[in-house]
Each structure stands twice: as C-alpha cells, then as structure tokens.
Amino acid sequence: MKTLTEYLWFNTKNKKEFINITDEVQKVVTKSGIKEGFVLVSAMHITAGVFVNDEEEGIKSDLMEWAEVIAPFRKDYKHHRTGESNADAHLKSILFHHQVIVPVTKGELDLGPWQQIFYAEFDGQRRKRLIIKVMGG
Amino acid sequence: MKTLTEYLWFNTKNKKEFINITDEVQKVVTKSGIKEGFVLVSAMHITAGVFVNDEEEGIKSDLMEWAEVIAPFRKDYKHHRTGESNADAHLKSILFHHQVIVPVTKGELDLGPWQQIFYAEFDGQRRKRLIIKVMGG
Amino acid sequence: MKTLTEYLWFNTKNKKEFINITDEVQKVVTKSGIKEGFVLVSAMHITAGVFVNDEEEGIKSDLMEWAEVIAPFRKDYKHHRTGESNADAHLKSILFHHQVIVPVTKGELDLGPWQQIFYAEFDGQRRKRLIIKVMGG
C-alpha cells in the first residue's frame, strides 16, 4: 500500500470562483505511481467546497447563482457577531460538500466523459489550501 | 491490499428515478473477497447522484419533490444556451452529492438497519454509468 | 494495510443538535496505529449527518436555522403516512451529507486550522450510532 499527500494553494482574484483542478489531481496520481486506489480531494477551509461537474461556462454560472439563492449573503447571521461577514460561505460549503473521492484505475482518474473536478471558492481573495491524498497500490 | 472495479449501467424509463442498488454493491464486495475496507459508489455523470437513505415509497417521493423545490427545472438557465435542457439535473446532482463510501466489515456492507444505497437519476431515458470500486484486505 | 473499526453511540437531549466529535475520531486513529491513510466517519442512520465546519456557536446556530429553512418540518410529507413524523430529518441528512473522509498524515487528522468534525443529529432523543473506520498503513 502506498500513499502520497500534496497540498494546493489558492488565492483567487474574485470572492467567489470555481477553479478546474482536474489536471493537478491527475499529476499527483501520476507522481504517486499508484495504479489502483482512491484519491481524496478535500478543501482545508470551512468556506470552500470541492465538487465534480461540467467544464461549461453556462452551468458554472448557474451553479454559482444557485448557491447564492439557496445560501444567500445576509448581514444578520449570528456568526457575524464575531466580526466575520462570511457565514454564507460556510453554508455554501455544506451545500456543495467540501470533498470528493476519485477512483484511480490503471493509473488514471476514473471519471466519466464530462466529469471535471472543481475547487469552489466562496470566500476568496486570500490564501487557502486544499489536500490531495492518494492511497492504493 | 486488493481492489476490484465494476461498472453498472442504467437506462431508466423515467426522466427522474431512484434505484436501490444495495444488493449490486454487496455482490461486488463479495466477488472482491475483501473483508475489511471501503467501497466507493460514484455516479460517472454530472446529472445523477448517489445517496444513502430509506427504502420507503413515501420518503422517496418526498425526496424527489424536495429536489424539484430546491433545484427546479427552469427554461432560463445559462447552460441551456448550449442547446441542453437539463441544468436542473446538474444542480440536483450537487444537492444530493454524486457518491458515497460504504465501509466493509467482515466482508459485508457495514450499514445501519435502515440504510440502503440509491442511484439517483435526474436526467434519464438514456444510458448512464456508475462505478463501484472496493479497496481493502 | 491495516484497518480499525469503532462505533460511537449518541442519545441527544435535544431533537436537533450538533456534536463535535473531532477528539473521538483522533483517538480511534491513534489507537489504530495508522500513520498514513483515510478515516471514514459516517452516520448509520438516515436522519443524521456528518460534516466538517467551524466550532463557533454563531455559525452552528446559523447552520441549524438554515437546515430548517431549506428542509423544513411539515406535517404533509408522504413519509408520514407510515406513522413517522421525521421526513424533514431525512431531507436534512441529504443536505448536509451523512459522511466525511478525513485524511490521516503522520498519525494525525490532516485538517485545516478551523476544521472540526461534527455529528449532526436531526431526529434525536433516542440511541443512534456512527461508524469510524480507519484504513491505511
């Protein structure tokens, strides 16, 4: 059994942004030499998500608008009594989930034809981190 | 460490449908000979989900109605400018999540008494695929 | 490859409650002797969730209020024809997801600075169970 752990850093230009990280995840899998196993891709912050969906501008825009409808920015969240202003980003992180597991088969990410891996930043413009951990043989 | 990878195909009669796949997942685990480990059950399409819940007609109907309330069909999604009409299915896939990990203990799915594994089709009536990958020893 | 499986039991005072279980998960990882791997933390009931977020009273209150907005208690769910009254807890379980995978690095939970693991009880005041399963080397 082998493992490899790597971290990606982000510092997005926008407050909210989706970043396609499929190639970066594949690079870590290739570097690990693991042929059969799982790769965990997991945000290390509580105001970000990770999800698998389509690399198409329209749906990415729809997903971000939907996040705002279901988990809207509001001033009166209780979390804001601490001086924070990002409670909506916590809710969005729960809605999208903060991690995915991608199966690795014959050394490749075993994704469907349209599946791409995205980092979902909901409170950006500062340095944030994500873990990629591969385990297998 | 051992792994086994199998794929299930679906072609649902209805556009939206929940399919109980617990027995199929157990069969793959049994075939793998793995006694202790994890089995990943993951949709390979971006308009489908996988979830664990109750095999009871009422709650399955409630869940599908709730999906439509939270991630409704609408004509004016930006994704539809590509000619597609299934943006709501992408949102529903995010809401339900597209995968679960089931623990395997003594060769069996280690589920609670009411837990069953479902494939959630949100844009069916065409061939779609799911991966079941077991890893353990 | 090693594994260790443990179960936690809950019997919450309130119907709905978030319980920080980070220390319990770390204890199981330490007991396993596993240095590199994954730990699965998964509710064994269909009316509970597991999530990673912030140990801050305000956001925990915001999250519970949000759960009630998005997946409200209602009398007229179809599930209630069975005599049950907890359909909203099933929906909340889907919204929050019922499990997380935490990476284990050098024998420790590899979490970001604010990440804590919570058991989310949405239909409590009775005995319920959660599985913690570590796999690695």
Secondary structure elements and pairings:
The structure is a homotrimer of 137-residue chains.
Chain A (H helix, E strand, L loop, with lengths): L1 E9 L6 E4 L1 H11 L4 E7 L4 E6 L3 H14 L16 H10 L2 E7 L2 E2 L6 E6 L6 E9 L1
Antiparallel strand pairs in A: 1-8, 2-7, 3-5, 3-8, 4-7, 5-6
Summarize the structure.
Chain A is α+β, with helices and mostly antiparallel strands. Chain A contains three helices and eight strands; from the N terminus they run ββαββααββββ.
Q: What does this molecule look like?
A:
The structure is a homotrimer of 137-residue chains. The first copy, chain A, is of the alpha+beta class. Helices cover 26% and strands 36% of the residues of chain A. Chain A has 3 helices and 8 strands. The first copy, chain A, has helices at 22-32, 57-70, 87-96, and strands at residues 2-10, 17-20, 37-43, 48-53, 99-105, 108-109, 116-121, 128-136. In chain A, the strands form 2 sheets. The first copy, chain A, has a 5-stranded antiparallel sheet, covered by helices on one side. The first copy, chain A, has a 3-stranded antiparallel sheet with strand order 2-7-4. In chain A, β5 (99-105) and β6 (108-109) form a beta hairpin. The model of chain A has no long low-confidence stretch (mean pLDDT 98). Chains in contact: A-B, A-C, B-C. The A-B interface holds A 1, 36-38, 51-54, 56-59, 61-63, 66, 70, 95-97, 100-101, 103, 105, 110-112, 114-115, 135-137 and B 1, 3, 5, 38, 40, 42-46, 70-71, 77-82, 87, 90-91, 93-95, 97-99, 101, 129, 131, 133, 135.
